[in-house]
Design brief:
Layout lengths: L1 H12 L3 H79 L5 H10 L16 H6 L3 H8 L1 H30 L2 H10 L28 H6 L1 H38 L2
Helix pairs in contact: 1-2, 2-9, 3-7, 5-9, 6-9
Length: 261
Amino acid sequence: MKFFRKIRQKLLTESKFSKYLIYAVGEIILVVIGILIALAINNNNEENKNIEQEQVILKQLKTDYQANLLQLENKIEMRRKLISESLAVLDITSKDISISQDSLSTIFATFFMDPTFDPIENDLMNLENIKLIRNDSLKQLLSHWTSDFNAYSESEQIQHDHYISEIIPFMKEVGIMRNANHVFWKAQELRMGFLDKGKNDEILTIGKSTKEIDVQSILNDPRLEGLVTFIFTFSQVCNLEGQTLKKKMQKTIEVLENEME
């Protein structure tokens, strides 16, 4: 700057106004170029920071979506068991087939399963973080996640409410609650919805009831057919919606992987 100032003073002293004007314009251009270069460097640094932050977000989202996908697949498998046992009961009642007390207890033990999808929620799914994501298709998938999950969750809640208000009271009333509970805690595959996936062996059971259970009376109870029909219907509804949600989650994971560097 001292060098440029001396040149300006010399030109003014020598009354070389035209040269001074050309010089002044040139100096302004140099200053503007310097400012533009500084802005470009600053913008580039800011963009690099945003890209780094985007990568952190993508990696965390992928981890969370993969964990949620595994959980959803677990719930879908649980409902497949509920559908299978519901069809078995309807077949038994419609054909008037005789079954043992233990077989009926095993069926009702399956009805103890209450699959509800509880996905990981994180602070990354906010507007500021989504703005950092450059892929528009991925933005759309992520922004639709809440509405997609809520639609699925509504059907789950209906099934859960029925489990609490109808299934459990029925098992208590007909006297098969204890036996079904005993089978449930003994069978690892029925406890797959737990965090340990049913692998914990340190499980206590209360044993079977000493009272005789009137199997035929339970099978002839008109409420049973209605209960299992409801279980079948909403298990299938939830699984159909769950499969749709699963495909969207798989698509999201695929796009996340493609965007990760």
